[in-house]
Amino acid sequence: MREYNNNTKSYIEDNITGIPFDDFKKGIIKALPIIIGYLPIAISFGIIAAQANIEIYQAVLMSLLVYAGASQFMAVNMILIGALGIEIVFATLILNFRHFIMSMSLMNRLEGIPLPWKSLLSFGITDETFAVAAIDESIEKASPYFILGLFIGAYGSWSLGTLLGGLLAMVIPPTISKSMSIALYAMFIALLVPAIRRQWRLGIIAVVSSLLNLVLSKWLSGGWGIVLSTMLGSSVGIFLMKEE
Amino acid sequence: MKILLIIVGMAFVTYIPRLIPVFIMDKLQLPSWGNKWLKSIPYAALGALIFPGVFAIEKDMPLLGLVGAIVAAALAYLKLHTIYVILGSIIAVMLMRMYLGI
Question: Which of A14, A37, A54, A93 is the most buried (most CB within 10 A)?
Fold first, then answer.
């Protein structure tokens, strides 16, 4: 017997079977919007890397080991203009530091999952996987196999897309994925709008944070702008969020 | 070789911030305001990720991102599945591009 709170839209609870492979499969299905969103971007990353004379295996390795889109594009750019390795690594740290905040938020809710599992899952945190996982109010009850499926779906799309882009680099001009640059934004909006419909308070948090980012991004690099606006914007939630 | 070293360095500084919270949150018992703060982060992050970035999908053409965002928001408001929201938004941007000839 499950009881539903009227305000709570829960996909995950409906989707947990307790059978690892089934949960994994359901996680992959849940990842579908990310898979669609990642592919064109990963392909263009592969193409741009190839055009910067980075070997295909190196581009794929970067996607497999770093797995953070914006920083990978930035690294290719910096390699092209001859930046020092240490500069690239430091810029990557700054740009990707937002995942620290996201990981804190998600890990705080995955209390039932053992530490080694969480250490593995934390590798898969990106803006998109975090958004999809954390927007679900019943992620606390999710099986680790479900989250693994969700994260591996996204990871596979990113890595295979990079390979595909590297292979297609000779055939296709980099403009191919232009109209798809909206895809991930559309996904973020698709996650946010139903949440706001449920609870208008959440919309206030999002609006405050985006306005902060509008101001901060004028002075700070993209990474810090998002980190600071997320931290400050979410602190509004301390006063707005209802008690458990 | 140099690029491989850069990749390893990048991998390291990207994974560590993702990993550390696993151990922090395992030990930490947060007060109620702390939980509320962390629970608000997804919505704040979405706000900051969408805006103003969505206006920059095409250089000097904020209108394109605006149209894509409005279409996405409208479709999401109609409770369409995320996949259709994405496809609808892509098609809207594609049509705008054709119309503007870019």
Answer: A37
DSSP single-letter state for residue A242:
P
Phi and psi of A108, rounded to 5°?
-60, -25
A101 contacts A231 by C-beta, under 8 angstroms: yes
- Domain positions in chain A: 12-198, 199-244
Which residue in chain B has the smallest CA separation from A95?
Answer: B14
Q: Omega of the bond prior to B52 within 30 degrees of 0, cis?
A: yes
Closest Cα to residue A224, out of A235, A212, A234, A236? A212
> pLDDT by residue (tens digit) across A99-151?
999 999 999 999 889 999 999 999 999 999 999 999 988 899 999 999 999 99
Q: Do B40 and A241 touch (CB under 8 A)?
A: yes
Chain A residue with CA closest to B38: the answer is: A105
ipTM value for the complex: 0.92
> Which tens digit of pLDDT belongs to each residue from A167-182?
987 776 544 456 677 8
Question: Is the Cβ pair A105, B38 closer than 8 Å?
Answer: yes
Q: Report how far residue A200's alpha carbon sits from residue B8's, in angstroms, rounded to the nearest whole number.
A: 43
